[in-house]
Amino acid sequence: MTGIDFNAPPGHFALKSVLQELFTVFDRRIHNLKDIDEKNFGKTFPVGEDSYLENLLRTLSSLCEHCLPSVLATLIHWYKKQLKLIEESGEGMDDKRLVLNYIFCTALNEVLPQLHFFPTVCDDSVSYLVTLAFKEVAYTDHSSYGSKYNSYLMVTERFTEVLGVLSHTHGAVIQRAFMNALNELRKENPITPYTMNCIIALLMAMKFYRIKVGIFYYK
């Protein structure tokens, strides 16, 4: 196993080992696209049926009770790096980006429940994740993804789940981001069908958020 310091303290060694193995598994899945089921994207990456990956994620979640800030920063750094590599390669970019987002959200949903141990230390990471999630759940026309639209919808659902997990500790941040996005849409006059679709998509994204959204009146 390369890149691991066997003389490191046990906690550091365990964390680095798990992350390295997890990223190895993730990288294989991102670049192995031949078996993607475009009609049911979730069946392509059934985490619950992969006991090895599931155990890695559970182990990482347990370790995050002690080092979540470092893990979140590492996951985000890995995500940004993968996005750059995908953009540079050009080949199968849309497919790889869908897979990357799905896998990234899967990892986040495992570790973010530990945020209550670090209520403010992770604010920068949380801010990035909230901004990313709202960007990814924004309305996209069906034609943009064609036959992959169902896969896109599954990925957006994963991002709304991320918002749902974050709402337990950073509900005010999510509510503020939601209101800012909604107010920007309400400024448009007249309200077009596209704007209405954007508003509907935004409201749908909040179904995992643990507050009731009131009735908004559009100008």
TrEMBL record:
Provide the Cell morphogenesis protein N-terminal domain boundaries.
96-213
PANTHER family noted in UniProt? FURRY-RELATED, PROTEIN FURRY
Tell me any Pfam family this protein matches: MOR2-PAG1_N
Which InterPro entries does the UniProt record give?
Cell_morpho_N, Furry/Tao3/Mor2
Q: Record's Gene Ontology CC terms?
A: cell cortex; site of polarized growth
Reading the lineage from the top rank, the first entry is Eukaryota
Protein name per its UniProtKB record: MOR2-PAG1_N domain-containing protein
An annotated GO BP: cell morphogenesis
